[in-house]
Amino acid sequence: MRSFFLATYLAIKEVMRNKGRFFLVALVIALITVLVLFIAALGEGLSNANRQYVANLDAQLVVFLEKSDYSINSSRLETNTVKSIRRVEGVEDAGPIHTSNSQIVSLAEPLKVSILGVEAERPGMPPLLEGRYFRGGEARETVMDGSVAERTDLKIGDEIEIRSTQGTKDEFYTLKIVGLVDEQAYSFQPTLFLPAATWELVRPQSESDLNSDTPNPNIIAVKLSDPARVEEVRLRLQNEVANIEVADIETTINNIPGYTAQQGTVQTQGVFTLLIGILVIGGFFQIQILQKVPQIGVLKAIGSSNAVVGLSAVIQIIIVTGIGVGIGSGLNYLFSLVLPAAIPLAFNGAWSLAAILLLLFIGPLGGMVSIIYAVRIEPLKALRLG
Fold first, then answer.
1. Which of 135, 238, 273, 293 has an alpha carbon within 20 to 30 A of 373's alpha carbon?
2. What is the crossing angle of helices 293-301 and 259-291, to 10°?
């Protein structure tokens, strides 16, 4: 215990006597912390923006067109497929989902949105936070997700105008906002939910599509009576319903275009940032030890043990790293308050805490070489008496 207090005293004393030097390295660690936490938040934000709607589906299985490789954009099912699916044993309910894109042009700045055709109170339609569901048929009504409300000043009761390319012409449609759901971004964009018939009317269409008024769903979300029987019902669906392939939610997310590659890229950036942190911290404390070899020699000459010298170096590294990580975390929190909603950042508490603990760990890890060197210093050689 005496050795611990002595090592702590020596570490704090040196930090206080060289505030400028240690504060600069703490700032470098703070910047590394900001970068690591920012990359972690960006990865989580991009992941949410890409998979948020699919991940929050009130369903356990997703039905695609056969040989579509679980790609939502490549899948186009027959309208009667949903009825066949609802008749399969083990299926509690099924909801068709139609996907497309549009743009709200009645705002000061046009906003690109995903438009999803769904059935109210069926799988695929998120639960309401406020307002009511849209009516059926070709009702010119929509339910917006929280991302739309966050980026604009739109509210329930407002009317919006969306632009849609029909063949070679731009057409404009007015929709009334009747409800609000939680954030349900689809394909990196805020989302509007419409009745299927209205979706078919307002979605962008080519010349060949203009002759058809039948809304073919891209996918069908399937809710099971017993969620534990996922694999059993999946096989039953594929055997009893023609021209389909069925995936669970995890498989559907992993097959979203670019999702896996995107996450791999962000994670690789995070790993390399941590490696840079180890090298920076290790390099600084190695230079620090080399500069105070004579002082360490004096300490050992007057009786200080290797344990005191090594522990003092460890405590010093922990103090400086802790200050740097604390400053960096504070800066990151301030950034989270001022960055615009359009930037896909999600500061996940658990991931942020894990990143902070990892950064605190890499301090002593980076300084390990300098600690080993410090305890091996011979007093006589350090004082040039050997």
1. 273
2. 60
